[in-house]
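Q: Structure tokens for this one, please.
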Amino acid sequence: MSLDSRVREIINRNMIAPSQHTFDEAQLQIYTLMHRDSYPRFVNSPTYKELLRTCGVTEMPAAAAAAAAPAAAAGPSPSAAAASTPTAKAASSPAAAGAAAAASSSPSRGGADGGPQSGT
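A: Here is the predicted structure, written as tokens:
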């Protein structure tokens, strides 16, 4: 994904004295782009619909249906995006939960020690 010039400049300034928050603006922008574009496109894709059918899911899970709705494509404001937790919205279906986890990213600030989380 591409970052806009404003975010690149913020990162460049933050790199003078790096901290655990150096890439927060980039993380927020990428999360917002995924929320508004990538995830809704995924839940509307033939691949996801085939996955649901293969797992025996006859109705689209609520979280995926909300993302697929036209109003969801506009997405939240950046502050709302930072406050939301996609994993909390995951559907009860194993297929939907796995797809939601694979298609979204939580805007966390790293591991318990402030460093990067393992597995990301």
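A few notes: Helices lie at 5-14, 24-43, 46-54, 62-68, 70-74, 78-83, 94-103. DSSP finds seven helices and no strands in the chain.
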